[in-house]
Amino acid sequence: MLDADFFRRWMATTAASVEREAERLTALDSAIGDADHGSNLQRGFTAVRAALEKEAPDTPGAVLVLAGRQLISTVGGASGPLYGTLLRRTGKALGDEAEVSEEELAEALRAGVDGVMALGGAAPGDKTMIDALVPAVDALGEGFAAARAAAEEGAMATVPLQARKGRASYLGERSIGHQDPGATSSALLIASLQEAAEGGR
Amino acid sequence: MKMLFNVPETVVADALRGMAAAYPDLTVDVENRVIVRRDAPVAGQVALVSGGGSGHEPLHGGFVGPGMLAAACPGEVFTSPVPDQMVRAAAAVDSGAGVLFVVKNYTGDVLNFDMAAELAEDEGIQVAKVLVNDDVAVTDSLYTAGRRGTGATLFVEKIAGAAAAEGQPLERVESIGRQVNENSRSFGVALSACTTPAKGSPTFDLPDGELELGIGIHGEPGRERRPMMTSGEIADFAVNAVLEDMPPRSPVLVLVNGMGATPLLELYGFNAEVQRVLRERGVAVARTLVGNYVTSLDMAGASVTLCQVDEELLRLWDAPVSTPALRWGM
Q1: Which residue in A39, A119, A162 is closest to B111 by CB distance?
Q2: Where in the sequence is the domain holding A33, given as residue range(s)?
C-alpha cells in the first residue's frame, strides 16, 4: 500500500529530477516553443517541496491536491494549469484514505489525465504531455517500471509528430523532428513514481 | 550575450521596482506582481485588466492608466501570469461596474484567465473576457492553438479602455473589444531571434542574410525562412498577407510595431513602405502609430497591424489616454 510518505517522496523526487533535467527541458522547448519549460517547472516544484514541508498533509490525496494548487499558483503558462489540474484531480480521486493501493492510484491518475485532456483539449497524437501520460496510465497495472518505460517511449514517439496544440502548433510542419518538452517532463513525473517506490524500501 | 540585469531570477521584480519609481500614477505591487492605476477603483467605470508574460514591454504594464487598462499582471518572461494575480487585480479595480479581461490567445494565458474568471466570479465580481487573436501567420484551424494575439492587443486595450472611461456598461465595452479584435489583423517578421534572460542565448538560430516570416512575439521561429529582403519587399509581403486575410471595407488604423531591437529610424522607413503598399492597394489610412509597443525582448524586426474602424471606433481611438507608453489628449 502507498501512504502519504510515498506521495511526498514522489513529489520530492520529481522536484529533484526536474531540477536535474531543467536545462534539457528548456533546450527542447527552445526548438519548438519559447525556451522556458525547464525553469518554469523548476520554480513550481520548488514551491511544491516547500509547501509540503510546511503544511505536512497526512493523506495521499491531500499531498497531491496541495501540490497541484502550488503549481497553479506559481508556474503560469500552460504547464501550471495543466500539471496543477493533473495532480489536483488525481488527489481528489484518491479521496481521504490514509493509504491507497497501486490499482487505486492507477485509477485516480486516469481521472487526472482525463482532467488534463478536458482542460487543454489535447488528444493522443497531438504532440503534448498526453502522449506520455496516457500510455503510462495504461501500463501502470503492470507496475511502476512498466509505466516508466511506457511514458519514456511515449515521449520519444512525439519526435515524428506534428504539434496540434500549444505553442509548438504555430510551427506547423516545422515542429516535426523534435521531442515534445511537455511529454518529456511528464515522463520524468512518471519515472519519479518508480524512484519513490524504490526509495521507500 | 550581454544583458543589463543583476541575476536572471529577478528581472521581472527589478523591472517592476523601476516602473514604480518612474510612474507615481501607478501602484505597483512588486511581490504579488500587479500594476494598478493609482486612482482605482473608479466609480461607475468598467475596469480593464490584462496581463501576459513579461518581455513584451511596454505591453501590458505600460498601458495602465486613465483611458486604457485599470490593471496589468506581468508573468515571468514569456510565461502567462497565474490566476492569483488576476483575481487580486480584479478585486483592486472593480468599482461594481464589472471587469473586462483582455486575453491574448495563447494556451497558457487562456487557461489562467479562465481559472481567474471563475475565482473572481466566486468573489462576486462580474467578469467578461475578450480574446485577441489577430496574427494571420497562424492558420486558425482545429490543428493549431489558433491565431496568436499580437499587435491588435494595443488597439483592443485603447479602444475598449476609452469606452470604459466614458462609463459604458460592461456588455458594451466587451462587444467593442470584440469588434476591434475582429477588425484587426497582424503579420510579423524577425531579422534576429531574441534572448531570454534565463537561457542567455538566442531562442533560435537565424543566420546573417536570412529572415523569418510570420513570427510570433515569444521568440518562436516563424512559418518560413527566406534570404534577407529590403524594407520595401518586407512591407509588400506583410501588408499583402494581412489584406489577403482581411480585404478592408473601411479606413484603417495602422500600427507599425518594432519587436524590440529595431531602431525607430528603420521603423519610420518601414512605415513609409507600408503606407506605399496601402496606397497602391487603395486602402485609406485613418491614423498611424509607429514604435516599440508589443515587443519580443531584443528581437530585431517589425510587425504590421491593421484595424478597420468606423466613426465610433475612430472617436474612441482619438479619446484621451494617459499611460506610461501611450499618452495624448490629456
Answers
A1: A119
A2: 2-199
